[in-house]
Amino acid sequence: MVQKIRWGILLMGVIVLLAAAVQNSENVLLKLFFYETQLPVSVLLLVTSTVSFLIGALTMGRLIRQKAKAKSKLAPEKLVEPAVAAPTKTTPFS
Fold this sequence. Notes:
Layout: H1 2-23, E1 27-32, E2 35-40, H2 41-73
């Protein structure tokens, strides 16, 4: 169920992105440090969205791997159970 919701959200995002790209075809000036070029707004939107998605996916992949690695280090078969001392007999007033 959750996977279907994720795919639905992703599909809606792509549809909105494509609609914005089609409706924004004017050229804009892009300045990046010493580089200047003119691009349509739609291309700029698609490139920035793709780069942002890839950065997010790589970051999440790294976090998931780190979590799995930490979990495997704490696996139950590797944990050493402490020895339990036998209870000693005591009397209340001795």
